[in-house]
TrEMBL record, chain A:
GO terms for molecular function: dolichyl-diphosphooligosaccharide-protein glycotransferase activity; metal ion binding. This is dolichyl-diphosphooligosaccharide--protein glycotransferase. Its EC number is 2.4.99.18. Belongs to the STT3 family. It holds the Pfam family STT3-PglB_core. Its cofactor is Mg(2+); Mn(2+).
TrEMBL record, chain B:
The lineage of its organism: Eukaryota, Viridiplantae, Streptophyta, Embryophyta, Tracheophyta. The keyword Transmembrane helix applies. Pathway: Protein modification; protein glycosylation. Belongs to the OST1 family. Subunit of the oligosaccharyl transferase (OST) complex that catalyzes the initial transfer of a defined glycan (Glc(3)Man(9)GlcNAc(2) in eukaryotes) from the lipid carrier dolichol-pyrophosphate to an asparagine residue within an Asn-X-Ser/Thr consensus motif in nascent polypeptide chains, the first step in protein N-glycosylation. N-glycosylation occurs cotranslationally and the complex associates with the Sec61 complex at the channel-forming translocon complex that mediates protein translocation across the endoplasmic reticulum (ER). All subunits are required for a maximal enzyme activity. Pfam families: Ribophorin_I. InterPro entries: Ribophorin_I. It comes from the Eukaryota. It comes from Linum tenue. GO terms for biological process: protein N-linked glycosylation via asparagine. It is a single-pass type I membrane protein. PANTHER family: DOLICHYL-DIPHOSPHOOLIGOSACCHARIDE--PROTEIN GLYCOSYLTRANSFERASE SUBUNIT 1, RIBOPHORIN I. This is Dolichyl-diphosphooligosaccharide--protein glycosyltransferase subunit 1. GO terms for cellular component: oligosaccharyltransferase complex.
Amino acid sequence: MPPQTMSAKTDATIGVNGTAKSTSNQAPPPMALPANLKSDLLNKLSLKSFKLKTKQQELLLRVSILFLVYVLAFITRLFSVLRYESMIHEFDPYFNYRTTLFLTEKGFYEFWNWFDYESWYPLGRIVGGTLYPGLMVTAALIYWGLRFLRFAVHIREVCVLTAPFFASNTTLVAYFFGKEIWDSSAGLVAAALIAICPGYISRSVAGSYDNEGVAIFALLLTFYLFVKAVNTGSLTWSLASAFGYFYMVSAWGGYVFIINLIPLYVLVLLITGRYSVRLYIAYNCMYVLGMLLAMQIRFVGFQHVQSGEHMAAMGVFFLMQVFYFLDWVKYLLSDKRLFETFLRITVTTTVGLAAVALGVGTASGYISPWTGRFYSLLDPTYAKDHIPIIASVSEHQPTAWSSFMFDFHILLFLFPAGLYFCFKRLTDATIFIVMYGLTSMYFAGVMVRLILVATPAVCLISAIAVSATVKNLAQLLRTKSKVTQGGSSKAASGSKASSKALLDQSQPFQRNGAIALLLGVFYLLSKYATHCTWVTSEAYSSPSIVLAARGAHGNKVIFDDYREAYFWLQQNTPTDAKVMSWWDYGYQITAMANRTVIVDNNTWNNTHIATVGRAMSSYEDEAYEIMRELDVGYVLVVFGGVTGYSSDDINKFLWMVRIGGGVFPVIKEPDYLVNGEYRVDKGAAPKMLNCLMYKLCYYRFGELMTEYGKPPGFDRARGVEIGNKDIKLEHLEEAFTTSNWIVRIYKVKPPNNRW
Amino acid sequence: MGLGLGVMRTIEFLLLIIAILSAPVLSDLILSKVERRIDLTSQIARIASTIKAENDGSSSVSEILLSIPEVQAKNLAYLTAKLVEGKGKAKTSGVALAVEPANPKGMPPALSFYTMILPKPLANGDSVTLDVLAAFTHSLRPFPEKITQADIQLVVFQDTAHYLSPYPVKVQSLTLKLPDARIESYTKLENTKGLGSEIKYGPYENLPPFSYSPVAIHFEANQAFAVARELVREIEISHWGNVQVTEHYDIVHGGAMSKGEFSRLDYQSKPQIRGASAFKHLVAKLPPRAHSIYYRDAIGNISTSHVRGDSKKTEILIEPRYPLFGGWKTAFTIGYGLPLQDFVFESEGKRFLNFSFGSPMHDLVTDSITLKVVLPEGSKYLSVSTPFVVQQEEEVYYQFNALAMLMEPFMLITGIFFLFVTCIIYVHVDLSISKSSASYLAKLQWDDVRATVQQIQNTVNQCLSTHEKLEASLRDLSRTGDVQACKAARKATDGLLKELSKELKPLISFLQSSPPAAHILPKVEELVAKERELQERLMAKHSTIVDSYEKKLGGRETENRVASVQQKIVALRQDIEDLMEYIDEI
């Protein structure tokens, strides 16, 4: 190190010069230099005796960072409680809440055997056998645990906070997962990224009491445990991953992703020649036990051995056995040619057998074919043509680029970078995360809601990118800074500038470049943090039961019409009244109004939904027949014409027509359109202007002034003056309309006397 | 039409009259003057009567009977009587009298009786004046019973124009105060006057006991007919300074049932006409300094409420989710906290809670109320006094040790303490099942290696600090010029360092013998070697400096002689530090 020596030399002379000047000849001169050095060292030593060991320091830092991330993940999801209140959000969570309530009140056996006659009237629904009980059982266990510890909490609060709690736990899993596939610093970054990633927050804010809130935790946990099992080849970890899988199966239908991704991963490992006994143990244990455990969930039942979606896992399971067997034979047979023959025969037989088994199974109906939902994942256009009920849900639409950007922000750019790092260091674990990332990214592109599944993978891979980059840069800086430190410790007075110049000469701009890059990374990360916070507070915290808008003076205006209507129904209608509405509001009506509904968000019976769609799109007297048959007492419609609320029933109406028409060909979509255009004003189709939905939404709306300077009957949601202002109802009467007209409830009159 | 409506009721009354006429006359009391004023401006009928009673008999009388027809008695909500003292303008109502239900013999069965016990018996010829206040709920009957949204609400009130009493009445009159609105019809008897919203019957003179003359008034009443079918109040005391009150209401509009459509459009455009019978808000008067007020129902918070407060009261205006028309129901919960010192007092070692019993809502009829008082854990010797009829406040007495309120925090602290203790125990206890498995042994060995490395590091650190001493002695030399002391210091350090290196030897050999240390060994050895070299260099430097000092060489010359050694020393120090850090990270 020439520069160092140089500087040391100059320093020494200067120092000696100085002392020579200040002291007379008599004084012992050489002491100036060691004294200087000495105090420096002393300082360091005394500090060191107080300092924790590097290892302990690191542990402390790691634990405190994790703890902060844990807390952060929880509190950032409380925006919804702060902005609104502690309440259950949206649609499905209301069903989950209702079932959880039932579970905590009546106990597990009652819950398991629950036949719900309050929905799908007159069919009813076997609730215990048609739901994933994981979420409810989890919440109930938390509730009972807290009760046991004498915390008198309300079950609603438990339900509201379940999702944030599990999001916090997910950060921990992400940390361990990151540690497993890369290193602990990548794990920390992954935990921090996933804690605030909007793609995940959208489904896990406080109040979003839905399966996904728990399922993402279970999904990541299963993957982590499986990767750990593959890495260690230990039975313990594979057993743990089987239990993780069981929890996932109990919580969400998305478990199909696991049971297809893991075999795919195993297959890739086999093909790339990475087969090992570790893999054999991990997969077999996980698959067999996981399958047996999953069969305990009634809703899943024997699907693992009977349905087409699960066959891949079984195929890979048998393939593993063949592999193992061949390995064994290869070990026994010394002759290479003999082995090759054997290999050919075995593989042909196996493939043949498997094909025959699959063919016979499918033909005999033992193995069910793929479901429409599964097809719609593989082929994004499938649902549009074949299953309108799936296509009608907005969260089942293909994802737009903007929502990718909205949900991932910089992770979208870090993701490919992370993939690059993963490919640079290919291990069993990185192969897994790469496959998880790529497949889930594809699914996220197919359906908006599956962004959620991709989020953990994207966070982990991006974390690898961030961590590896920062680590490289920091290493560069650290070696440099050590050198300068060594130099400056000797630099008694002031030749720093010269030594620095010498340094830069040796490695030009590298240090500055590293600093600039580091700053860039931190800038990006801070942008990410602000973006996430903004998105959480502005976009993803709305309960969508309570609508908020900005008033003319910037104040917050709250439209609480949904609850107003539901509470009115609960209090002022007979307890056995049947309410007909579009299926979106079914869960909310049963949960909040406590009334029987005809159809709800479960959408298990397409015909029943089509019947309601048909009633809504028929003329009043035809609809009356249908309603009489279904014993309907009240009809509820959602109408945004007064407030400009756009996701109302008029805008959903074409789906009712389509779904209704899909089963009842009397309903024809073109009857409601004019030149392929959907309109409600004067130019609308006559059938449109006189169908039940139109009448119920716009009844007496023609007399209302909604906006200054516009004619009465001006629909603010669609920005037109309505076409039929003189609506008379014959068989129904207005029973209740909420203060902003968002929900309108009509009572079905009893039939007239015959004479 | 006004009279035709309550045919059934009228028949009931007629039967009553027949029963009454056959009843015997009681004692010798005469009511010399009775004035009744009935206030019907709200849904509660408040009857204030001023009664002047005279003892006309020979024996003294100590109690006076009040009679109320049974049909009304079941609606009786409140009854008090007070003695009026003084005459004329200076009248003041004084002592409250005890009013008790009575069941005197030989009375007609269709009447309920209450006795007012006088503080001192009334002697012959004496008279006494009483103020009797009675309130009746549900006594305004809507007629017609079903109305549409656009209709106004009409109600009927029935009573008797003659004061129904077991005593003869000399002079009496009745005034009815109605709301400022239309009066559909009223029974016209002799001496009946209608004056705006007031109707006056009487005066009537010298009527025998149990005289009865039914009257019915049919009038418009659009005020809130809010009836709480059920009210549950919970008062929870926390000695940390808060009284938490939670009230669950189950409200119904008790007026005429609504029929037909409810049109929001009509209600919005003309709420006074097309929703006259509905009410949209209730007002509750809470005690002052009420805080943390909330208003919600089973499905969440209700955002339509306003709180106004001053030093005397806190007024909260709550709007149910929807306006209530006749027969419509709603349910909600309000809750608020109150400062403890305003309601809980201490006397003679006992604490007592003094709290109003009823609902704080204005003009609300409560059909059934349940009051729960939750005392803190550890309260003893409870007793309750609820003298309602006299005062609308109840008192709960109990004993409570202030230390008991530390119980919960203490439990929490203990819980967390035990959590940490468990963690500590878990970390320190060896939980492995098989003590002979390979991995377990390897772990043990590795622990040993780590401990040894730790020791080596400690020793090296000691060496380094010994080096410091050497340097310090050089500094002393430059200050004092004591060469001998400096030499002695060198000797001492030398001895010390030798001892330390002796200590190092077995440690190193242990590391060399244990296989798991293989990857760490070269670094450790390098560390020790470097340290030894550093020692030597330092010694050399020390001796050089001392030597040149003895030879009285100049500063620059000494510097030149030491310079190369000094460089090495600095480099070595840096290396050692790096190595230590590296080993730490393993």
